[in-house]
Specification:
The complex is a heterodimer of chains A (403) and B (266). Chain A is globular. Chain A is α/β, with parallel strands linked by helices and 403 residues long. In chain B, strand 7, helix 9 and strand 8 form a beta-alpha-beta unit. Classes of the chains: A alpha/beta (403), B alpha/beta (266). At the A-B interface, helix 1, helix 8 and strand 11 of A face helix 5 and strand 6 of B.
Chain lengths: 403, 266
């Protein structure tokens, strides 16, 4: 029986085709080697697998449902729409799948402290949760701008015993939080594990995080066969760094009949320049340790991203997505802030589900392409719930809710 | 590249240690850079590193991050820096090394970079986020035209260090601390022992230069006892931050370098 954690690629050096690799200061190479060795060992280790599975089931509430959204489907004139309810996982998003896995790895590697970067705060909360559960010291880096727009998640992390460190450099968002986390790791590499939150960063992170997120797609395969008797025709997922998307896509990559669609954040529109869509409107380059599509200037400076959704507000993307794009195996589109907000409202009213602003982009992708999906069986990865976004939504509607 | 080799050769003959100084190119503006380089040289720097500013300098502490921001705000680009190097070369033969994160170089195009850098009089490249394995392509292109100067850290195992030294040119940049750039009041207690170990591996292959955290003459002297060169960056960048390229700033910078020089020679 093959392990659910075994995800195949990357090839030597951590490359997916031409993308990936390990572009980091020499100080980190030994730690990445140690992490890679631990990952290769434990992903084949039945005891580790069984322990992680038990935590995912009893603590995180997996498997998450594959829910048939009939009213949304009727509203859009699409035959069948299913929502993969990652919003129902403990802490409210798919991020917990990865942090539980990495925290278990950190314990196995004898690390006493973990650090993380966070944008929307979902990965930070999921890291703080796993750290509390396994008795690890935890510090989370978060851009000042995100601290403002995600105040509730900051407090949640603090409740869980984590120290949130504001990042004031650069664009004061996710990109800069990752820079600061890497600087911390370079300094404290001996006793600290860096729980990176997406399928980005130097090898082995893109593959390791993907392996922990594959559970989404593996469950979806089984559930789709049960509820619709076959595999879905199309799968939509939002793409920031791309962890929820790769998690649901990956087990379907070999099934050529299943179309995979990643939805990036077009922000105020691709032509405005204020967006977070490196796959749709960027070029290959290096950020945070890997070669991948990127928002950058003519001179190779990293451009600031823009999205209403803090979790998608990132100028880079995971290298495996870049490879899937070039290979034509996945298709990437982008929807604007306004489209995402409209889709969020539509899902609230038709299904009684408030999705995260990130996940609303996946829904908006389906809304945008509804005309070509009429007779299809569509799965949307609903990667997180929207409670954290209520203050942002209220502010946009010109209302104030108590923080 | 010849200029770096000659520099070490001459120092070896006279029994002296090299002083390598770093400033960020284009801070506070590119027009200031030739003037500041002249001051560093006049103060007694043997090799000068020019930092190429980058939006996301993840191996750097606050001092060099801010210098990078100032240089970018002044419109500094890699092409502009190369032109500036050509201007400096009109009246200086001091070895010049560019220290750049990989993305600006990658974006410029590696082949074009090697050709232009060589033509402008650049002697070497230090790329802090381009470890041994990923640097193979750049090393092949640079061959004997530009030195691709490798870095090693306290966390680098001995077998790996041997490979790094074998592939490197110019000198070995040994990172003294497990951390990011920036002045420190104290260097790691085990640095002397580490330099002893590293020294044995690099001996006869590459000169050993030590950087990160070194800011005072005392620190420079202590490190130079166990290395061929000492690298000072943030301490000089702080002077530029404070005084820019003003007359008093230039004097301050030259004096600081002369002080370090004296400690190495004394």
């Amino acid at each position: 029986m093959s392990s659910t954690l075994t995800g195949g690629r990357p090839g030597p050096g951590g490359y997916f085709g031409p993308y990936g690799g390990r572009f980091v200061p020499e100080t980190l190479i030994a730690a990445l080697d140690e992490l890679e060795a631990a990952w290769l060992r434990y992903r084949e280790d039945e005891q580790f697998q069984a322990e992680l599975d038990a935590w995912l089931k009893d603590y995180c509430g997996r498997p998450t449902p594959l829910y048939r959204a009939r009213r949304l489907a009727d509203d859009l004139g699409i035959r069948e729409i299913y929502l993969k309810r990652e919003d129902l996982a403990h802490t409210g998003a798919h991020k917990i799948n990865n942090t539980m896995g990495q925290a278990l790895l950190a314990v196995r590697m004898g690390k006493r402290r973990v650090i993380a970067e966070t944008g929307a705060g979902q990965h930070g909360v999921a890291t703080a949760t796993a750290a509390a559960l396994f008795g690890l010291e935890c510090e989370v880096y978060m851009g000042e701008k995100d601290i403002e727009r995600q105040a509730m998640n900051v407090f949640r992390m603090e409740l869980l015993g984590t120290r949130v460190i504001p990042v004031t450099s650069g664009s004061r968002t996710l990109k800069d939080a990752a820079n600061e986390a890497i600087r911390d790791w370079v300094t404290n590499v001996g006793d600290t594990h860096y729980i990176l939150g997406s399928v980005v960063g130097p090898h082995p992170y893109p593959a390791l995080v993907r392996d922990f997120q594959r559970v989404i797609g593996l469950e979806t395969r089984v559930q789709a066969r049960q509820v619709c008797g076959r595999l879905p025709d199309v799968i939509y997922a939002c793409v920031g760094g791309g962890s929820n998307a790769i998690g649901i896509f990956h087990p379907f990559i070999g099934d050529q009949e299943v179309e995979l669609v990643g939805v990036e954040a077009a922000g105020e529109g691709l032509e405005s320049g204020a967006h977070s869509a490196p796959l749709c409107a960027g070029d290959p380059g290096l950020l945070h340790g890997s070669l991948s599509y990127l928002l950058q200037t003519e001179d190779g400076q990293i451009r600031e991203a823009h999205s209403v959704s803090a979790g998608l507000d990132y100028p880079g993307v995971g290298p495996e997505h870049s490879w899937l794009k070039d290979e034509g195996r996945a298709r990437y589109i982008a929807v604007t802030d306004d489209q995402a907000l409209a889709a969020l409202a539509r899902l609230c009213r038709t299904e009684g589900i408030i999705p995260a602003l990130e996940s609303a982009h996946a829904v908006a992708g389906v809304v945008a392409e509804a005309a070509r999906l009429r007779d299809k069986c569509v799965v949307i990865n609903l990667s997180g719930r929207g409670d954290k976004d209520v203050a942002t939504l209220a502010a946009r509607a010109g209302r104030e809710v108590e923080k | 590249m010849k200029r770096i080799e000659n520099c070490y050769e001459n120092l070896r003959k006279s029994g002296r240690k090299a002083l390598i100084t770093f400033i960020t190119a284009g801070d506070p503006g590119l027009e200031a850079t030739p003037k500041l380089v002249a001051e560093l040289e006049a103060g007694g720097a043997d090799i000068i590193e020019l930092g190429v500013p980058f939006s996301d300098p993840l191996a750097d502490g606050p001092t060099i991050q801010l210098a990078s921001n100032r240089a970018l705000a002044a419109g500094t680009t890699l092409s502009g820096i190369l032109e500036t190097v050509a201007r400096i070369r009109e009246n200086s033969q001091v070895p010049l090394v560019l220290m750049s994160y990989y993305n600006p170089l990658y974006r410029y195009g590696l082949e074009r970079l090697v050709a232009d850098a060589e033509a402008c009089g650049v002697d070497g490249l230090i790329v802090p986020d381009l470890p041994l394995e990923e640097a193979a392509g750049l090393r092949r292109l640079a061959a004997s035209r530009l030195a691709v100067i490798p870095l090693a850290a306290p966390t680098t195992p001995p077998e790996r260090l041997e490979k790094i030294v074998a592939a490197g040119r110019g000198f070995l940049y040994y990172v003294s601390v497990t951390g990011i750039t920036g002045a420190r009041t104290e260097l790691p207690a085990d640095l002397a022992a580490a330099l002893e170990r590293v020294g044995k591996i690099v001996a006869g292959c590459l000169p050993l230069a030590v950087g990160f955290g070194i800011s005072t003459p005392e620190q420079a002297k202590a490190v130079a006892a166990r290395a061929d060169a000492v690298i000072v960056g943030s301490a000089l960048v702080k002077i530029v931050a404070r005084y820019g390229a003003s007359r008093s700033g230039c004097l301050e910078l030259r004096n600081k370098v002369a002080e370090l020089r004296k400690a190495l020679d004394g």
